């Protein structure tokens, strides 16, 4: 019998895209954690068009954890606590050559998601789940 592979953690949620005029638009998204990529979390933004491919952003799980309580990240991905009259959120700022976007993520959704990821791969045990050969193959095939 083979080794049981820990399950991927995936949570569907609605984020709010904060427009420059401070209005906010709901955006369907998924938070995903794959134990085979144990240091990263992935946010998939679902296109509203039929057949539209989701846009995926990946960044360090630790960045998301740190951003729950204090500003974290530099460059393409920044995360920080965000309090509003509507409740507690986490701001997720994404930058790319195509532009910048600021999202509000419900803090409670992120906390539940992160707790589930730590059940699958506890903090400090990520290297036990890393398939170095597969990671190197992915890097080399990306050229």
From TrEMBL:
Broad class of the protein's primary localization: other
UniProt record, GO biological process: division septum assembly; sporulation resulting in formation of a cellular spore
Gene Ontology, cellular component aspect: cell septum
Pfam families documented for this protein: SsgA (PF04686)
Domain of life: Bacteria
Annotated compartments: Cell septum
Keyword set, alphabetical order: Cell cycle, Cell division, Septation, Sporulation
Family membership: Belongs to the SsgA family.
Protein name: Sporulation and cell division protein SsgA
